[in-house]
Amino acid sequence: MSFGRAASQLERLAIAFHRPSLPKLPLHNTRDSWFPFLVTSQKCSRKFSTSSLAAQPELSVRPQRRVPHQKLGSVRAQIHDALDSLDESLPERHPLKEDQILRVLDTLASSARPQDLALIEKVLANFTSLCGLPVVAEVHSHIIRGLLKQGNPQTLLNWLVQMRQKPGNVQPYLQHWHMFLEHCADVGHVRMIRIALSKMAHSGCLPNNRTFKILFRAMFNSGASVKDFHAAFNDIEKYTFWYDEDIANMLYDGFVKLNQTQQAREVKEEFNRHFLKRVIKESPRLVEWEGSLALEVERHGMVDAVKLCRSLQEDGYKVHHRTLSILLRRSHDISDLEYAGEALDLKPSAFHWSIVIANAIRAGNLPSALSSYRQFRSTGLPLSAPLLQPLITGLCNTATSGSSDDLLDQALKLYHELATTFPPADPDAPPRREDLDFMRERSVGPDAYMYGTLLRAMGNSTDVQKYSKVAISLLVAMEARAIPHTSVILASLIVIAMRCSSSVDEALEAYRRLARQTNVPRITAWGYQWILDTLSKLTFGEDRSLPPIWHYFEIVKDMRFSGLAVTPTIYAQLLKHLAHLAPDAPEVMKDRLAACVRRVHDHLTLDPTMTPNISLWNQLMDTYQRVGLFAEAYRVWEMLLVSENFDHASVSIILDACGFANAWPLAQKVHMRLSERSFLFNQGNWHSYVECMCRVGRLNDAVKTVCLQMGQGQKDVAPNADTIQVLLTFATRANQQDEVLSRIQRYLPDLWVTLPSILGEIIIKPNHVAM
């Protein structure tokens, strides 16, 4: 099957899937071009299915509380002095006490400026040296409380999601999430809470009843309707949620206070219909006991939680399989599963194995997860989608970030194992379901989530022609199982069809026909971002072809029309690709490339729905300078400086731009104005400044800066091997490497003796001039 024919069949099947009123298309009839079929299809509709809850308008967050410049400057100076005073020879000396460093973190977090958030991470990286204590959960609690004062919910959410990757590797506790959610509830930020719920579940910290109380309070604060609450009940059903009469009364009283008695009765009845079957029939203290166990696991680990469990048993607590699930919530090794099972005298189920495997995937240990799966297969326990899904996700994500499709093939092999175990059911029989997570229902066979994971990986695959054919077989299987499309599946099909097209116009037509059909899922912001990124990189065999700007913004217009916010990333990814094209662009293409960047800037400026962030401005400035438009890049920098909306990346970009444009007076001006603001350069800024001096022919000034200025009062930005490499790169061109090396040996003796092997030949033979 040819490339184009595979794409044609893929799109036709996808469209037919959502048009049950039309006769089914023969799967093997690919002789005709897809375009005649598309032209005769129904007129495209601009209606998009969306739940009323998703469309609920959000209240703006409370005004930011900026920390006074004087206090911030004092705190920054204090922490830099403390960092500079660290002495490796005297590790027992700690310049700060615990209460001092916590106050510093609170102040920096209350600012939440990019440079202050970066400084927080530096403090965390040196936390033990600064105060003698490890980074624990309570340290992050102080940071979160500071971020709450600043009030930006996205900054808060980013911190929680990235906590595990920050120094200390602390996993956010349920209390951390609740601090954030309570803040969102105060301002009625329902959408942010719903995003956080999925992030919580993905991180292994499952929401509980208190979490949903916060959600309902936020919905009342945002003026949500009865229909919105009904939609929320549907969403909550997939989580472990116990019936709580207090919540039922809370919902009823909330509408009564609004003088909506009829709506109050309706919401309470709907709540009872969804959850009354989930009443806890055991001890009324069960929720309290299990909450204590979960907290003990998070704070002190499984061994201490097992001890607490035995203590609770004396009070009447009865262990069961749910207890084992609680104890395993942070475990990603089979030894934990075996220990907990023996300690509680319980035999682990397939669900418990899935917890350990999923945790290994979250920890980034795919080999351990695969090893656990092989051990699981030897137990004879049944396969299920919840057990295989984390593995398939891990394989697909790793395949997407690599250059080989081998892992994707391995994921497909696992899928086929499951599909063979659970063949499509009789269409007249009810679907098979297994209660795997107490009250959380999930298909035991292949489901929409699994198909979405596989199709998304195929959209990013190296050999898209090969996987376009596989995608067709998956669509056929989905139809046999009566599994509807999701937004992920739709976006994946669009990307595959676009990559299978033979021209930009054909790719755009594929998008139009798939995205604008009636009765299809609503494409999410993530989906649009992926589709747009794919469109910008289509080449069709041409070297370094320009992205189709007008086609790109036609899809952006669709995104806005669907009610989604156009994010800065949508613009930044296009600018980044234009910057990537610039270095090797032929002369005939450079003017067109510059015109494209200006056009993107025009769209950005005229878009009233989007507020650019620092990253977007940085990308625009960098792209301008890479396509040779230095004046425009400098104007962006001036705007950032005046608004104080810049970071270390901004500084490096403009200094690089000055160097390439041979604009030394402007580079001096940048340095002077930053000094007036007491802005401290990081290592990258110093390297950009030094390289700028070298590039404009001021090698002597660059050597002086390295030998006499870098690292003065800031040990963490002292010259290193990379700095010397920058100097020698330009010194060699001017045949001045001997003089430069001599001055480095004289002024930086400690650095001289530690220079790595890449400079060994130069160091060993300082009089050798030919390089």
TrEMBL record:
Keywords: Repeat
InterPro entries referenced in this protein's UniProt entry, alphabetically: TPR-like_helical_dom_sf
Entry protein name: Pentacotripeptide-repeat region of PRORP domain-containing protein
Organism: Pisolithus tinctorius Marx 270
Lineage, broadest ranks: Eukaryota, Fungi, Dikarya, Basidiomycota, Agaricomycotina
